[in-house]
Amino acid sequence: MKIRMPLEEAERIALKYAEMLAPKCERVEIAGSIRRRKAEVGDIEMVAKPLPAFDLFGSPNGYHDLSIPLPAVKDGQRYKQYTLPEGIHLDLFIVLPPAQWGVIFALRTGGAEFSRKLVTAKRYGGYLPSAYVVRDGAVHRVDTGEIIPTPEEIDFFNLCELGWIKPEERN
């Protein structure tokens, strides 16, 4: 059974794990219902962009491993899930190319219906202009496949002609 806990308690736990990941990250942020300031939280969602890793000779050889010292329930390259000792799940979404921070952070902040609309074309009732598609965590032009840079959420929102929407107003 999925537990729910007060926002303040979930946020305290999330901050602890964000601090643990920070030395390996270019950026790590708390997303999901904590970021939307929901009174009760069912899981912790975080988005992280790992720092590049280098071999002994200074050549790039990928990115830092963002595992935490717990057994992972799911242990993929871009998504990891942990059951924390505090009794709540931590879902870690890892931004690796071609994914863009702005897309992943917006989608993982949610809410679920808002995120669905962000990736759905306007002609089908969503927010995304029909010239684009979201694939692999990035916005691509339908005609050329070109990736449209969205380094921040506002860049993704502007592409969708939404302007800024506060996380607590996203349902």
TrEMBL record:
Superkingdom in the source lineage: Bacteria
UniProt-listed InterPro entries: NT_sf, PolB_thumb
Listed Gene3D superfamilies: Beta Polymerase, domain 2 (3.30.460.10)
DNA polymerase beta thumb domain mapped to chain residues: 109-171
Cross-referenced SUPFAM superfamilies: Nucleotidyltransferase
Protein name: DNA polymerase beta thumb domain-containing protein
